[in-house]
Amino acid sequence: MRSLPSIACSPSRKVSRGVSPGTVFSFPLLLLFLAACAPAFQPSGPVTAGELPVLEARVAQDPASVSDLVRLGQGYREMGRTVDAVALLERAYALEPLRPSAVAQLGLAHEAAERPDRAREVYEAYRRDGDSAALLAWIEGRLPAVRRQALVLAARETVAREGELAGTPPLPGHVAVFPFNVAGSEAAFEPLGRALAEFMVTDLSVTGRLTVLERTRVQFLLDELALAESDRVDPTTAARSGRLLGAENTVVGTVEASQETVAMEAAVVDVVGAALRGDPRAERDALQELFAAQKRLALELHDALGIDLTPAERDRILEMRTRSLEALLAYGRGLAEEDRGNFAAAAGHFRQAVSLDPGFQDAGVRAGEAEVATDTSAEPPPEGVEVGVAEEVALEGGPASGLGEGLEDLIPDPMVRDAVSEATGREGVGRTSVLDIILRRP
């Protein structure tokens, strides 16, 4: 048999070869050569329609092949067969709970199936025990979306169970702060609604004697009730929403701003009695004094809630997080985009807030969190990036990560008839191809 012709494999992924039409290849030698030049990484990206029948046949032949289970599960998820995807990926995960691709694809499948709690459980387990730096970074980027999905689904379930929850007593000391209604203001001031609510949540949390619900949780419930766009939330609707949230009291407010002045009004609503606790508190000042007015309002709301502040607590509440109106508006725009799940846009607004006021720490923290959520796409890192740290070191300086140009025509196509396979009785799409041998992880 003629020896294998010269085929060079180089880091530049270029292949130089001299193959004459009559060349006969030694199949074992070809396998050895291809293994030497094989990609260090497994194929990644969306599963093609042509792959599905091959993967299904392989899983039927070997139900314990984790790589095939994961790839087929990914394919099912991408085509909307989430139930089938979850079943396959749970099987793969049970076999290899620290396999990065199994973790990532199972988490995505549970997200697609609207099971964020299970997705978070899978991700958190890998954060605790896994060692792939690439996957750990990817998980950090997924968690904000998982958390948002959980809040949205919780709001939806709460509204669906409203009748059942009607008789449930509120939790003592729990307060829900609604977004401020921006009334009669110029459109440019619309972001104040969320920004002021976020500031009020922080101020009311200072003493630790109140349990102030997260602003996004309140926002998503209002969205589900279609109340967020109403011109005004009256005590009845505030009490209804507070009851669904399990809050004893709700804080509702309005803000009206112009280029010269700002007026704010806020009130505490008793959820059980669906009535105001005392008269609404109001502040009016020049626009540039908006932050001082917000702080005075926060102190008055503590009084309405029956909280006697110590001098130290009062000083902490009066600390200014920013004095830049433009930074506050950018911050509010970031909160709105974050609520919508648009983390890239949110990060941009938060970064703008920091550029306008470098001392605005809240905006800096939010920018970092949103950027982590933006750094990774919806899809996990490629298989080759998912190897452990030790494997990554071993791969450095190794052969090129792609087959050379023109080498693909030396590899049998698993979707067509193969004379060698037929002769040996191994024909059919279920057979293992040369690429399978090389690329499939042990």
State the fourth-level CATH superfamily of the domain at 167-320. Answer: TolB, N-terminal domain
Number of helices: 19
Give the termini separation: 32 Å
Radius of gyration based on Cα positions: 30 Å
Order of helices and strands: EEHHHHHHHHEEHEHHEEEEHHHHHHHH
Describe it for me?
The chain is an alpha/beta fold. It has 19 helices and nine strands. The strands form two sheets. Strands 3, 4, 5, 6, 7, 8 and 9 form a seven-stranded mixed beta sheet that branches. A two-stranded antiparallel sheet has the order 1-2. Helix 3 runs parallel beside helix 5 (100-112) and helix 7 (133-160) crosses helix 16. The longest helix is centred in the N-terminal third of the chain and has 28 residues, at 133-160. It is elongated, with a radius of gyration of 30 Å. The two termini are 32 Å apart.
Topology:
Layout: E1 7-9, E2 15-17, H1 27-36, H2 51-61, H3 66-78, H4 82-95, H5 100-112, H6 116-129, H7 133-160, H8 162-165, E3 171-177, E4 181-182, H9 192-204, E5 211-212, H10 215-225, H11 235-245, E6 247-257, E7 261-270, E8 275-276, E9 281-286, H12 290-304, H13 311-318, H14 325-339, H15 343-356, H16 361-375, H17 389-395, H18 419-423, H19 434-439
Parallel strand pairs: 3-5, 3-6, 4-6
Antiparallel strand pairs: 1-2, 6-7, 7-8, 7-9
Helix pairs in contact: 2-3, 3-4, 3-5, 4-5, 5-6, 6-7, 7-10, 7-16, 9-12, 9-14, 14-15, 15-16
